[in-house]
Amino acid sequence: MGEKILVCIAWPYAKSVTHVGQIVGSILPGDIFARYNRMIGNDVLMVSGSDAHGTPITVEADQEGVEPDVIVERYHPKILEVWEKLDIQWDLYTKTTTPNHYAVTQDVFLKLLNNGYLFKDGAIAPFCPTDNRFLQDRYILGECPNCHYGKARGDQCEECGHLLEPQQLMNPYCRICGSKTSSIEFRETEHFYFNLPLLQDKLQTWLNAVSAQWRPNVVNFAMNWLKEGLKPRAITRDLNWGVPIPVAGFENKRIYVWFDAVIGYLSASKEWAQLQGRPEAWREWWEVTPENPRPSRSYYFIGKDNISFHAIFWPAMLIGYENLVLAYDVPANEFMQMGGHKASSSDGNVVWTPDALARYGGDALRYYLTISMPETHDSNFSYEELVRFNNDELVGVFGNAAHRVLTFTHKNYGATVPTPGEFTAEDKALLEISHNVFELSGKAIAAVKLREGLAESMNAARAINKYIDEQAPWKVMKTDKQRAGTVLYTVIQALGALRITLTPYIPAAAQRLHELLGFSGLVKDTPWQFAEVLAGQALPEPKPLFTKFDPPAAAEPETAKTEAAK
RNA sequence: GGCGACGUAGCUCAGUGGUAGAGCAAAGGACUCAUAAGCCUUCGGUCACUGGUUCGAAUCCAGUCGUCGUCACCA
Predict the structure, then answer these.
(1) Thinking of the domain A385-525, which architecture would CATH place it in?
(2) Residue A365 CA from chain centroid, whole number
(3) Per CATH, which fold does A121-188 belong to?
């Protein structure tokens, strides 16, 4: 058995069906990485789920006049459908409303409390007498003291961008009841704080040791945060939606979402273990012991907005809990813009994943999103580019290489893999490429350079087309059928290699090629290594691997705003 | 405003001290097995700008401009 690999993927809000920016930023890179690791024989546990406790969900629930759980239960099943169509191979995709997650969150809370990392402190918070509840900053509106915009929020004025404290707002009022007659009060309340300064040194030591290979934006961001000095951070709120606080006197408060969401990685691992019928199995990935100081390599696939939570707060929580494995790498991606502008679901400037899937399917979407993955800087989504990459590269380069050879073999060699004769230098060169692509692409994927890993396979596909043109088996066959058969055999070996190396990227297409080459079983369970396609192996009737698409109509908007999809 | 990442051919991007690269787009050519796909050739860049270090800078340093993120109640 190989190494234990823990693939943790950022938890999407359960208030939409996910947009392609979320897919390209964390879901897809995690899936590609996990699939590769399974194929090289590593023992992968890949988990995530829907985050139910985010503020946007309570805002939406308040607007609709329903319980937050109604919003969650509306979207969670739709999200599961998206994973199905996108071929995301989870070990478990759960949600933060499970009893298990509540229990694990409370356990972490109590452990940190007992270990001395939490403390209580008073705070002054805005309170609405009409609704009889404390208000979060963004539930308060008022006049901005800076630009005098009338609907500034308690945390920030959207008009001038000024960061605000609720007390600074002029004529503040409650966003829920809208009452301007009963003025907002500022009442005393009490909360638990996570004493991050106590963990500063241990965090620094850990980061210094582990981050040498991390992406520069992640390392610099985290290091800078530590350099400025950590401050205690409140982890409870005056809310009624979230994980209850397991301490007497705090019945009307909840653990705040940023604290419980990251615990999801641990709670999901435990839930997975229970579902396996091996409730202790999660320890194999998580539990640090003297004999096993690094039970697994854990990777956190997130967007750049999430670096502080995964490179600072969550590691601090794990250190405070003791004996749980810390991140091995946090390969945060930059953002994918939409039509040249920042993606924003509130502005409608997003492409919903189900829309993109309905139009072009999983292969084309996965391929395009990988090609344009924002690994080093922001990228940009457009349907036009998606169609172009599908037509030029999937259809034209890879699909064509497979189809031209398989149809030719089918017509002229009795639908079996021809028996090769002597190999020429050119044959050996292509066979060498077919062997090397495993190491070249694998090395890139292992280093989480996923675009590069895909490029290695596509370079091999280009080499196939070049070789076919140079060898011209349709010409050679007229005088030397044995020689032309050797050429076809050679190309089929190269296709056999690509059906494996492309599996993490476009699993459905790779499976189709697997079958077109006469194999049974699942290519995703095939080891990541060269395997000969044996001479004499029967080949089924060839079919094109991919479908060509018409370019999208020019007038068509780049971002769909279908209410139904959301 | 502070901090960080990024800014390279029309487009998407690689390249972190030694004579500027790939794919696509564009132009031309040879071929015909293939979803008129594929192959070959050509065209195309004062590497955001200014200054500095160096024998030598896309690459290191400083500043400027632009994009994005973050700054502790968005996650």
Answers:
(1) Orthogonal Bundle (1.10)
(2) 14
(3) Methionyl-trna Synthetase; domain 2 (2.170.220)
Q: How far apart are CA A539 and CA A526, in angstroms?
A: 19
Superfamily of the domain at A4-117+195-353: HUPs (3.40.50.620)
Higher pLDDT, A123 or A473: A473
Estimate to the nearest angstrom the gap between the alpha carbon of A335 and the chain centroid.
12
Show the 3-state SS of A341-367: ECCECCCCECCEHHHHHHHHHHHHHHH
Q: What is the pLDDT of residues A177-201, one digit of tens each?
A: 776 666 778 888 899 999 999 999 9
Rounded, the Å distance between the CA of A261 and C1' of B47 is 43
> Which nucleotide is the nearest neighbour of A58, by CA and C1'?
B74
The predicted-structure confidence for A343-369, as pLDDT tens digits, reads as follows 877 777 888 999 999 999 999 999 999
Report pLDDT for A4. Answer: 97
Which nucleotides on chain B have any atom < 7 A from a protein Cβ? 3-7, 11-16, 23-25, 31-35, 37-40, 67-75
> Which residues have CB under 8 Å from A321's CB, separation 6+?
A108, A111, A112, A115
Rounded percentage of chain A residues whose pLDDT exceeds 70: 95
CA angle A101–A104–A110, rounded 5-degree value: 140
DSSP state of A416: B
- Residue that is written with structure tokens 């349907």 in the block: A383
Residue nearest to nucleotide B32 (CA to C1'): A474
Question: What is the C-alpha to C-alpha distance for residues A81 and A24, in angstroms, rounded to an integer?
Answer: 17
The ipTM (two decimal places) reads: 0.92
Domain spans in chain A, listed from the N-terminal domain onward: 4-117+195-353, 121-188, 385-525
Q: Which nt is closest to the CA of A542, judged by C1'? A: B34
pLDDT of residue A142: 79
Residues 6+ positions from A548 with CB-CB distance below 8 Å: A390, A391, A395
Report CA(A301)–C1'(B47) in Å, whole number. Answer: 31
Does residue A162 carry a pLDDT above 70? Answer: no
Is the Cβ–Cβ distance between A528 and A36 less than 8 Å?
yes
Q: For tokens 């901005």, what's the residue?
A: A144
pLDDT given for residue A384 in this prediction: 86
Per-residue pLDDT, A555: 41
Mean pLDDT of A292-312: 93
